[in-house]
């Protein structure tokens, strides 16, 4: 899905949910949608400052928090970066990410078998999973 279609989908999603998709949130969304790899908050801030010179770290972090809460982006904890989710709104899905340590490409996959196995193991331990992001590091096909 191209960046314009993704943006339109996000706007409609926010409208349905009754949340504000502010100009800053939209700008950060657009910046993220132009990246195929994960990108750090400060790198996004540098890009945002081109159109909004007054932008501060708090600006970018507030926008990223909102985008994350809406399911538009995923935070990759292990590398402290963010990546666009191209199928947000379809469901409340578990996230499994394949992260190439060489080129930085991030591929989102979804394995219901993996999700079900994890939930089953958690349940046996008396644990309820409220949010899941699984990160796997390695080398993508292009870098092997």
Automatic annotation (TrEMBL):
Q: Which superkingdom?
A: Bacteria
* Signal sequence, renumbered to the chain: none
Q: Which Pfam families match?
A: FUR
Q: Does the keyword DNA-binding apply?
A: yes
InterPro entries documented for this protein? FUR (IPR002481), Fur_C (IPR043135), WH-like_DNA-bd_sf (IPR036388), WH_DNA-bd_sf (IPR036390)
Q: Does Zinc appear among the keywords?
A: yes
Q: Where are the transmembrane segments?
A: none
Its keywords, alphabetically, are: Cytoplasm, DNA-binding, Iron, Metal-binding, Repressor, Transcription, Transcription regulation, Zinc
Localization per Swiss-Prot or TrEMBL = Cytoplasm
Give the primary localization class: cytoplasm
Q: Which residues form a coiled coil?
A: none
Family matches, as Gene3D superfamilies: 3.30.1490.190, Winged helix-like DNA-binding domain superfamily/Winged helix DNA-binding domain
Q: How does it assemble?
A: Homodimer.
Q: Which NCBIfam families match?
A: PRK11639.1
Which family would the database say this protein is a member of? Answer: Belongs to the Fur family.
Question: What's this protein's name?
Answer: Ferric uptake regulation protein
Native organism is Thalassotalea castellviae
């Amino acid at each position: 899905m191209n960046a314009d279609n993704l943006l339109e989908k996000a706007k409609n999603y926010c409208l349905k949910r009754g949340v504000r998709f502010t100009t800053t949130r939209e700008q950060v969304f657009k910046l993220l949608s132009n990246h195929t790899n994960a990108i750090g908050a400060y790198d996004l801030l540098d890009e945002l400052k081109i159109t909004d010179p007054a932008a501060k770290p708090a600006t970018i972090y507030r926008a990223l928090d909102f985008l994350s809460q809406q399911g538009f982006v995923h935070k990759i904890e292990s590398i402290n970066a963010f990546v666009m989710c191209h199928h947000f709104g379809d469901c409340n899905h578990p996230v499994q990410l394949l992260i190439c340590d060489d080129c930085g490409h991030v591929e989102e996959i979804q394995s219901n078998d993996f999700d079900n196995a994890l939930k089953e193991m958690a349940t046996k331990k008396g644990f309820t999973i409220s949010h899941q992001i699984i990160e796997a590091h390695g080398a993508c096909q292009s870098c092997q």
